[in-house]
Amino acid sequence: MTPSNRADLGKDPSHVSGMFDQVAKGYDRTNTVMTLGNDALWRAATTRAVAPKRGERILDLAAGTASSSASLAGSGAQVVAADFSPGMLAEGRRRHGHLPNITFVEADATDLPFGDDEFDAVTMSYGLRNVQHPKKALAELFRVTKPGGRLVINEFSTPPNGFFRGFYTFYNAQVLPRVARLAGTNGDAYDYLNESIRDWPDQRTLAGWIREAGWTHVEYRNLSFGIVALHRARKPR
């Protein structure tokens, strides 16, 4: 059995990347089970928010197994699926490498290997939380986006309803890691997932970080009672 690569809230890039390498093959299946199928709904909402168009160039950062990239590529846009986990990218290529308008790139969110003003839209789903310096990642996303371009961040967040928030906290702490283990996935990775969600700031705080990075027209809306929040913004022209 491969030893567990347990990430922690220090979010050392090599540890987090290694952890995702280990869970890559079962990642999508486990997420579908644990979210009761909501992951597909959240992915569709993210694609609608990005509003990809044929001929546009879109960066899907923290693309993982490229399910989100494939959804964006359905519009005919040219999509760059970027991730710092080689294992995730390999699984993405296996599943979606046949799509001619997806390019796979290994990339560090805080030091992107792209020029200034390259992309019409940039998006990141459930990945900003795993970056050691998330404000630097938001600045890098700003740098590589064309003036007038779009940002969409979908991330786990804080349910505003106190009763539901209590239930959700219990589910994450007690149920989610057990489900992950039953699904044959590295349960330690989902222990980390719970810790990272609990430690992550709420919707308004993240919106403030996005503004600090230079983005304008910042807004967000909750999905599934605030389990996740969809943040949108623009780069000034």
Short descriptors:
7 strands, globular, 237 residues, seven-stranded mixed β-sheet, Rossmann fold, alpha/beta, 9 helices, EC 2.1.1.163, menaquinone biosynthesis, 21% strand
How would you characterize the overall build of this protein?
Helices cover 44% and strands 21% of the residues. It is an alpha/beta fold. Strands 3-2-1-4-5-7-6 form a seven-stranded mixed beta sheet, sandwiched between helices. The protein has helices at residues 13-23, 27-34, 38-50, 67-73, 86-96, 134-144, 162-182, 187-199, 203-212; strands at 57-61, 78-83, 102-106, 119-125, 145-156, 216-223, 228-234. The termini are far apart. It has one domain (13-234): 3-Layer(aba) Sandwich (Rossmann fold), CATH 3.40.50.150. The protein contains nine helices and seven strands, in the order αααβαβαββαβαααββ.
Secondary-structure blueprint:
Layout lengths: L12 H11 L3 H8 L3 H13 L6 E5 L5 H7 L4 E6 L2 H11 L5 E5 L12 E7 L8 H11 E12 L5 H21 L4 H13 L3 H10 L3 E8 L4 E7 L3
Parallel strand pairs: 1-2, 1-4, 2-3, 4-5
Antiparallel strand pairs: 5-7, 6-7
Helix pairs in contact: 3-4, 7-8
What is the number of helices?
Answer: 9
Succession of helices and strands: HHHEHEHEEHEHHHEE
Biggest sheet, strands in spatial order? Answer: 3-2-1-4-5-7-6
Strand content: 15-25%
Family: Belongs to the class I-like SAM-binding methyltransferase superfamily. MenG/UbiE family.
Keywords: Menaquinone biosynthesis, Methyltransferase, S-adenosyl-L-methionine, Transferase
GO molecular function: 2-methoxy-6-polyprenyl-1,4-benzoquinol methyltransferase activity; demethylmenaquinone methyltransferase activity
Pathway: Quinol/quinone metabolism; menaquinone biosynthesis; menaquinol from 1,4-dihydroxy-2-naphthoate: step 2/2
